Amino acid sequence: QVQLVESGGGLVQAGGSLRLSCVASERTLSRYTMGWFRQAPGKERELIATINWTGGSTYYADSVKGRFAISRDNAKNTVYLQMNSLKPEDTAVYYCAAAPRLAEYDYWGQGTQVTVSS
Fold it and tell me: What is the mean pLDDT of residues 97-113?
């Protein structure tokens, strides 16, 4: 059973930073595209960043572009999301997910809460 475990969420003031981590239970996930999603109360889940298996290609939603950075360390089976200049509207549960096939995210973590106070 593939498992993804997120950590690093918490409460931060607007303008602050957090770094989320997502550790995978299997080394095979190092060959998958990884993504970070978030879901705020009453809103649909939003894809905010992806990174391909080499780390050479990334994507960011407009809402986080220039503030967030996704990276991965395949030797540690870990994907990171560095979040800077946080805003209250970034408040959400953040999930990491793995896509064995293009844009098909089959494996999900349990989520970590990020709350940004104004």
Answer: 93
